[in-house]
Design goal:
mainly alpha, elongated
């Protein structure tokens, strides 16, 4: 589903709230997701204060919201580099948040979440925590009819299941590679053609992206 917005108008504060939350918070698990709506509501309430102040007589149109976003927004030159590769996009904190927002419009955010979960999994040092996390990732993303099941072929699914018999940091490597390839060939090119991305790279100097 394409992301459409009138580029001649500033983006809604609600979208800024979503992007700020995506940039500021680390990858969260399913248990923490129940707090997402509350966080978004709180952020929107705070941004609502900026809106009321900007609408008051004599208010500075750039306002405090621009100050909040200033340290987060990429320059058009930085954003253009995201077009070099999916890797460069994911390495940029704001780029990652923008890509996540785009995937949400396509109802395929689980692909990125799985990839991020695998990245976090490889950083775990405790074997007991690794075992627990591996089982959670499999149950959440790989098991058939799981709540966030990603699109994997039967061989990769079974191979990953077998790896759980002897859990190591590489047990999700094949599945992660498959999902990365899917995003790289499918979602990533569409993201580069989306209004969301084009709005960022075409922003005028001094204006807020998105």
């Amino acid at each position: 589903m394409p992301f459409f917005r009138d580029l001649s108008k500033p983006p809604p504060l609600e979208f800024h709230a979503e992007m700020l939350l995506a940039v500021q918070r680390p990858h969260t698990g399913s248990l923490q997701r129940r707090h997402t709506m509350k966080e978004a509501k709180d952020m929107k309430n705070r941004l609502g204060i900026f809106r009321r102040r900007n609408e008051s007589p004599g208010a500075n149109p750039s306002g405090k919201l621009d100050k909040v976003l200033k340290s987060l927004k990429p320059t058009p030159e930085e954003a253009l580099k995201w077009g070099d590769s999916l890797e460069k996009l994911l390495l940029h904190k704001y780029g990652l948040a923008a890509f996540r927002a785009f995937l949400r419009t396509e109802f395929s955010e689980e692909n990125l979440e799985f990839w991020l979960a695998c990245e976090e999994f490889k950083k775990i040092k405790s074997q007991s925590k690794m075992v627990s996390k591996a089982k959670k990732i499999f149950a959440e993303y790989i098991a058939i009819q799981s709540c966030k099941e990603v699109n994997l072929d039967s061989y990769t699914r079974e191979h990953t299941k077998e790896n759980l018999q002897n859990i190591t940091r590489s047990c999700f490597d094949l599945a992660q590679k498959r999902i990365y390839g899917l995003m790289e060939k499918d979602s990533y090119p569409r993201f580069l053609r989306s209004d969301l991305y084009l709005d960022i790279i075409n922003q005028k100097k001094g204006s807020s992206p998105l």
